[in-house]
Amino acid sequence: xxxxxxxxTGGVDTHKDTHTAAAIxxxxxxxxxxxxxxxxxxxxxxxxxxxxxxTLLMVGVEGTGAYGAGLARPLRxxxxxxxxxxxxxxxxxxxxxxxxxxxxxxxxxxxxxxxxTGTPKFRDGRVEALRALRVARRSAVQQRSDVxxxxxxxxxxxxxx
Length: 161
What we know:
This protein has helices at about 40-50, 70-75, 90-95, 100-115, 125-160, and strands at about 5-15, 20-25, 30-35, 55-60, 80-85, 115-120. By secondary structure, it is of the alpha/beta class.
């Protein structure tokens, strides 16, 4: 009896310090779940773990514009298809309860079914350049306001003394 390669989909529930991943096969059966640090080493371990189950078709990631940004980039660099998954609606979350492995599994299922998916935010190219310019401008405007306030305070002290 020939054994065939398992095709799997990953789902990742992202947080500031850790990411919880779940792997499911193409029939939706859970292959496993695990937690990894949100670091370059953790991202490599997460990808290696997902690939250990067989052929990795895609990975659904929550928050590619926030906590998932650091993970989405190396996945894309390794030619893994990444899809942005919206958080589950509140009603569903209340019904299932809050659990990182459950959220990661739901993310994998949403990616496999192509539900609640969007284009990942990779934070590169023109959009990232524009974001950097906006951050610099906001900082400059804030500094100008601070200097104006300090100058007025100094003038008031000099005039009053």
